[in-house]
Write a structure and sequence with these properties.
Blueprint (H helix, E strand, L loop, with lengths): L9 H29 L5 H16 L1 H20 L2 H36 L4 H15 L2 H9 L3 H25 L3 H10 L26 H21 L1 H9 L2 H34 L5 H25 L1 H9 L4 H30 L2 H21 L3 H29 L5
Length: 416
């Protein structure tokens, strides 16, 4: 099996992946600028973004759990050079992901109607969302393969192509028909970029007997990954659906614009965490730990630098997205940026712990995320109320999780 990730390439992989992903992020912002201008009718922009960044990820949580689990095991056997075990596992996990995606698709069909009613989506947007979700679920195997095998350049290329297709298709369809449905459809069309993986089909030619991943250890880790995915969704994206349920159209439009800019803080730095997770899943001893801590430091530094830059340029950034000034959106950015910095820090500690198999910390992270999301539903029925809860709630959650993480690090001699 080719393309093993070697410890000496960790920082290089992280920086290359981050650079290309940053360019991809700029393209995704350009897409937002397009729909922000085209979807001028009140509520359309907020509806489109709440589907893309909140509702569709909620429907895709089940395959996301599998992606982290499979990535961890692929990375472990790829790094250790156990080629026979790796090929057998890839064959076995391919079958596992196939049937899990079938199950996830069936679950999405069952729950989409009651969830759409609960969050006040109309029927046409519900149907488009369902189709896009089903199509998107089948792209999970691509990210699991690329990340697990340390194909970060290829993963970055797929992300860049996805952005290009979404921008081009979104520009055309929303110009002719400026609706939330067409904006969501553009994100589904962009998933055709995953077909580029066929160019490397020879690298994926697997031989041997499939090895079923379903042992006791795999099942336990799958549950741990479920806690991580649930916690991450609650912290990172759950507030968008709260806003959709309780906010009026103009307030929801402003909130989605501000949240889009704030969530770019952890999103821009996320490639460093992807490399960190793959590296730490492969090895947690020796000189590699120092490089992993360096990646973590770069990630944290990027979060704070980005937050300061966004706050200074908030008026410019909002106008860039919407094509006009929005005092409501600009006023929200400060508190949202603080919340997203804490969310980014929470995510870093949780992903480190997930790769390290520190199950108790991940269960704590998942529980904190659920409590946070429930607090938003209970008290965040206006933008003012929710923006007061978010920085405080994420700060408290980070303090609790950091104490647990640091205690574990000291107990295991700084990450061994």
């Amino acid at each position: 099996m080719k393309n093993r990730l070697r410890p000496v390439n960790i920082l290089q992989s992280g920086l290359i992946f981050s650079t290309i992903s940053f360019l991809t992020g700029l393209g995704n912002m350009a897409f937002q600028a397009v729909i922000g201008r085209h979807l001028s009718e009140q509520g359309q922009y907020g509806n489109a973004n709440s589907v893309i960044s909140g509702f569709m990820p909620l429907l895709g949580l089940l395959p996301s759990v599998a992606t982290f689990t499979v990535t961890h095991y692929i990375a472990h056997f790829n790094t250790t050079g156990d080629t026979a075990r790796l090929q057998g596992l890839l064959l076995g996990c391919r079958n596992f992901l196939f049937w899990l995606t079938v199950g996830g698709s069936a679950l999405a069909i069952i729950v989409i109607k009651p969830l759409s009613d609960f969050f006040h989506y109309n029927e046409s947007l519900m149907l488009v969302t369902l189709g896009c979700t089903l199509f998107g679920l089948w792209g999970t195997f691509v990210s699991a393969l690329c990340q697990g095998l340390a194909w970060f350049k290829r993963l970055a290329l797929i992300g860049f192509l996805t952005m290009t297709l979404r921008f081009a298709f979104g520009w055309v369809v929303t110009l002719k028909s400026p609706t939330a449905e067409n904006a969501v459809l553009a994100s589904a069309f962009a998933l055709l970029a995953n077909l580029v993986l066929l160019l490397w089909r020879k690298d994926l030619s697997l031989h041997g007997e499939p090895i079923s991943p379903w042992n006791r250890e795999f099942k336990k880790y799958l549950i741990v990954c479920a806690a991580y995915v649930a916690g991450t969704y609650c912290f990172l994206q759950g507030d968008v659906l709260v806003a959709k349920k309780f906010f009026v159209n103009t307030e929801n439009d402003a909130y989605n614009c501000a949240k889009l800019l704030a969530i770019a803080l952890p999103g821009t730095m996320a490639p460093l965490l992807a490399v960190l997770f793959t590296s730490r899943s492969g090895t947690r001893t020796g000189n590699v730990v120092a490089e992993q801590l360096t990646l973590l430091s770069l990630y944290i530094g990027g979060l704070f630098f980005g937050a300061g830059s966004l706050f200074m340029l908030r008026g410019f950034c909002v106008k860039l997205i919407l094509g006009r000034h929005s005092p409501e959106a600009e006023a929200m950015i400060g508190q949202l940026s603080i919340a997203m910095v804490f969310v980014g820090l929470l995510q870093a500690l949780a992903l480190w712990s997930l790769a390290s198999r520190w199950s108790k910390i991940i269960y704590l992270y998942g529980a904190l995320g659920v409590i946070y999301w429930l607090s938003l539903f209970a008290g965040g029925k206006s933008s003012g109320a929710m923006l007061q809860i978010m920085p405080e709630g994420t700060a408290i959650a980070f303090a609790i999780l950091f104490c647990a993480w640091f205690s574990m690090m000291r107990r295991l001699k700084l990450g061994a």
